[in-house]
Amino acid sequence: MERLTLHTKRATAVLQHAPFVVLYGVGVFEMWRTIGQPYEEALAKAAATQPDDGSDFLPPCMPLPGEYMPTFASRLFVGASVILHILMLLMQHWSVAFHCWLHYRPAPLKEATHALATPPVHQGKPELVAIERTAKGVPYIRFQKQNYMHNPVRLHEHGGFVRVACPDELPLEEYAQHPGLSTPSAKARIMQYGENKFEIEIPSFQDLYVEGLLQPFSVFQFFCVLLWCLDEYWQYSLFTLGMMLMFEGTVVMTRRKNLTSLRGMNNAPRSLLVRRDGAWSRISANKLVPGDVVSVPRGTGGDEDIVPCDCLLLKGTAVVNEATLTGESVPQMKEAVFVDEETAPVKLDVQNRHKVHVLWGGTKMLQHTGAVAEEDRVWSKDSSQDVLDRLRTIAADDVPAGTPDGGCLCYVLRTGFDSSQGRLVRMIQYSSEKVSGNSKEALGATSWLEEGRDQFDLLLHCILIVTSVIPPELYMQMTLAVNTSLMALMKAMIYCTEPFRIPMAGKVDACLFDKTGTITTDELVAAGVVAVSQFPEARAQHKLLSVTGSKPQERHPMGSMPLEASVVIAGCHSLVDVDGKSTGDPLEMTSIKAIKWRFDTNTNTAMPTKDATVTWPASIKPSVKILVRHHFASKLQRMSVVARVSTSTDCGVRGLCVLSKGSPEMIGQLLKDGTMPAWYTPTHRSLAKAGMRVIALAYRRCDDDYDETSVLDAPRTALEKDLLFVGFLAFRCLVRADSKDVVQNLKQSSHAVTMRVSHETGAAPLTAIHVATEVAITRTDKSKLLLLGEKQHQPTADGSSLVWRSADTDAVVSSFDAKTITDLAASYDLCVTGPVRLCAAETSELVWKQASSVRVYARMTPDQKEKLMMALKDTKHHTLMCGDGANDVGALKQAHVGVALLSGFGNANVKRDELTQGDKKSNADAAGARLHVLVTCVHMFRRVRARVCVCVCVCICACVCVHVRECDASIAAPFTSKRPSIESTLDIIRQGRCTLVTTLQMYQILALNCLISSYSLSALYLDGVKSGDRQMTARGLLLTVSFLSISRASPLKKLSSVRPIESIFHPALFLSLLGQFAIHLGCMMYVVSMAKPHLPDNWEPSITGKFEPNLINSVVFLAECVQQVSVFVVNYKGQPFMTSITKNSFLLYSLAFCGAGAFLCASNFFPEFNKLLQLVEYPSEGFRKTLSFVLIGNVVGTIVWDRLMHLIFAPTILFAGFKSITKEDVRKTIKMLLVVGGIMYMIASADPEVWEEYERQMEEYEQGAAAAE
């Protein structure tokens, strides 16, 4: 919630109608007072002009007004009052703020009955919600499925209403000592948090239909229909009205279908054991509330395996699949939170430090080991209620030691829409509002009164001018453009939950990629080991103990692994059993497989296989039993376990041991004093330079300090010290095959590409630099790579000793100065680490402002990633972030375009996607069939203008709506790719550029068309200019196809080296638009002035009469056709951002036929064809040539002017477009000219008598229908 204000109802709200009642009274009185006055004035004027005629009528162009008609001013006054009154009522429906201002007044909390809550942009709409009170009288509201309670202490935040905080940040001791809720407390929390389910209300068809018809767009269309009815275009009006109603009905049905699908995301309720009043009882998972102590076992499959809410693991362990939320493909092991004197006061951090102890709602439980309480061991699923009652013996204040059914003992943290799954549902529901472009069209046109014209008729046409300048199809054209992009992305297995971000992708100028799992694969290859051993049999490893020099040591094959290193690898891991198969981190799987040991998940014991290469005495026979795991933490850069190492004979690594692994830098700090080899740092740096991921291995015997009981409760910090180094384990992380090509394409298309490495990967900065060089993010010249670090390799608090070092030689190149970062980046590729950057930021605020100058960020924590994205946004960069969705949630949400790569989906989902795409193709085919029927109807409604056809067709096509399902979306980012490849970022940027360019070109095309129409309805209306039925039909059919085709353009496969223009107000576009309109207007005025001298001397413009072919109608029709074609051809952007017009066959041929037909008529080459289109003969050969040259000049002039504006203000785009022209484009252009020429010749050679007979029959039909009425 962004803003909240308190209100109470106005006592005088009903008085909103009082001003209009007064206006109605004044208007009605004036109408009654002036009844018959226009009639009398008309008679007097007629008598004055024709005193001897005795006729009751003025000239045919102006019939007498009604005998009892009031004056025009009184009718206008009443009509305006009615319209204002209706607008006031509609504004209350359109704007919640306006409704609140009209019916409510600001009030203090004691008097307030309602609150106006406003969400952030693109996250829903404002709502006026009622203020309710709890049983204790505490005010609260419910907004967007979440409760906000009044807190007097935080009055500065939204008037004191803050979101009801779930108990997810309490000290750990409170969770560990929590006995469960009492029944009254649980009921109170139900009122406070709501039930644990996703309540998605589905309005009735009638409610949604009425709501849609009252939208501003629909009301505007109704107003236009009414205007055309008043102007005697009743067929046109009824046709438009019918299409509007059909369109809205289709939209409503789609919305209901989407809401039903969204409600289906709610998990089927399952029954669980919950501890209330000190006893276990079985309740529905829907009744769980934060604070409950619950048993969560693995179910029998389906929804029974789904974790019902976010909960903290207190007892037991679990293995869960979090792919549905984060896309993490590797099953995650969750362990019970450990609480001792040191950690007891620490607050829970579910996102970072303690996420390994949290079960997320909506994830799937694959395996669990529960903690069964002694007194409840006899419980079974078949136990009767009597047995359950007998087992409820635990005192209410006692902390449960386990669960009756053997499930995991958990503390419920968040439920309903506050849970992780609920937040995903809310994001899909409230971020998927209607999408349309922001149009800033110019309003207004001028006309003038002329004596002898009916005032009402002139006012009507003035309003028609205004409505013509506001294109009603703009909204649907923008919706169609976005929906087209959404469907194209879905075909590429990319799903979007925030469609408004698609045009943003066209503005991206900075791309950031995570390394592990994004640029590289999750697959690791064990490259070798550099290890030490106490056994002479280990040869080379044994010799390393006596090496005193600092020269880097060579690595050896994995088969020569000594005992100490083998024990650490086999014992220090987080592998789990899923359905009888070990699974876990790919690095750990690869390690154990490489040394040929096996791990028994039932006994948590590892031992060598018979194929293992033994470099120690065969009589030792080692085995490792894991007792306690301390999981990997990004902040600590290490993990460790306490294990029992068993050997048949005494050796160095035996008994109770701490086995640890992590980054070389961190493990080096934990080694026992005097035990670190001199070659330690040079060796791991050498391996990292070679692009390897280096893991340091160490252990410590602790038999003398702990036994198997006390070691379970020992603090982690006490165990992980005085370690003995045993070696380095090196891995190669394979780069994805297409990563380099994608990065090169992005760099060539004017995108700054940066790579970031997470703390979670453990990769050293030198490893990150090697990968960045391999995929062309940085230069291949190693001397041009700089790494920011400490002068003495020792961190300082203030960062005063920071220097730039060569990543190749480690030599100091320059001292650190924030002011010179940009200059340094021009000559070098810069790399920094997260901790060092924080130190640098302490010296100057410029560090974050120059974030775009750094090419590689290594060892960044999630918070640092998020802050980096915010810094780039603050410096006006449009950012794209691509990550795996597990560790990058904050950064992905901060980026303008966040892309989560999901790899946790199998073939089942692929098959389901294929079926879904088949359904979408069927919908598109059905829309195409409806379009064919629509085109046929155009022949029946011959008075329908081109825009009506466009509106209806676009409406039908826009109904092929796109809906994102929960299984396709990720809570991590607005874009979700199911392809494990960064190539999806290219698809998103392509579609973003295409959508952005399409939006801008639609602004230009619709603006020019509407400006031309406004001139035709104003100045040319006074000259009696009309179009014939054949003319309207021919032009309407061709332009309908053009409008449909222009929104269906697809992007080019290769990204252009230039970025598109981002605003319609860019000089290249805005000045082009003004210049084109001036050329079109000048051309129209000139051809009209050409035609007027050749009209008969007694010619008078017929404003209300039927269409009659004459010279001025003919030249205006030809000029309009050529101008319409010119508008499309000139403003269709095409290359270099989307397919050229030659590859858009429907658009190309429709414009070609329309333009060729117009020039054919202008040349009068086939007089029969002119007659067919109801065009008159030209007065002379000179007139024909002049008309043709003017039309050619109109087209050439607009093209030259547009290209000139681009040459001056956007030359790179102009030249890139020229370079993109291919031989295929030329070939298709020639083919089009031949085809169009042949068909036009066939049409022109047709017998015009057939068309005349058709016209005569239609006129007879209309006259008969009129007579019947």
Plain-language structure description:
By secondary structure, the protein is an alpha+beta fold. Among the domains are: 3-45 and 68-164, no CATH class; 205-262, no CATH class; 456-495 and 976-1097 and 1106-1221, Calcium-transporting ATPase, transmembrane domain; 520-533 and 555-734, Calcium-transporting ATPase, cytoplasmic domain N (3-Layer(aba) Sandwich); 737-793 and 800-877, Rossmann fold; 1225-1268, no CATH class. Mean pLDDT is 76; it is low at 54-61, 374-384, 390-396, 432-456 and 904-969.
CATH hierarchy class name of the domain at 456-495 and 976-1097 and 1106-1221: Mainly Alpha
> What distance lies between the first and last C-alpha atoms, to the nearest angstrom?
59 Å
Looking at this structure, what is the CATH superfamily of the domain at 456-495 and 976-1097 and 1106-1221?
Calcium-transporting ATPase, transmembrane domain
CATH topology heading of the domain at 456-495 and 976-1097 and 1106-1221: Calcium-transporting ATPase, transmembrane domain
Name the CATH architecture of the domain at 456-495 and 976-1097 and 1106-1221.
Up-down Bundle
What is the strand tally?
38
> What percent of residues adopt helix (DSSP H or I)?
40-55%
The biggest beta sheet is recorded as:
11 strands, mixed
Strand content: 15-25%
Report Rg: 38 Å
Low-confidence stretches: 54-61, 374-384, 390-396, 432-456, 904-969
Strands in their spatial order, largest beta sheet: 18-38-37-36-19-30-35-34-31-32-33
| Category from helices, strands and their pairing | alpha+beta
Mean pLDDT: 76
| Secondary structure tally, helices | 41
Shape: globular
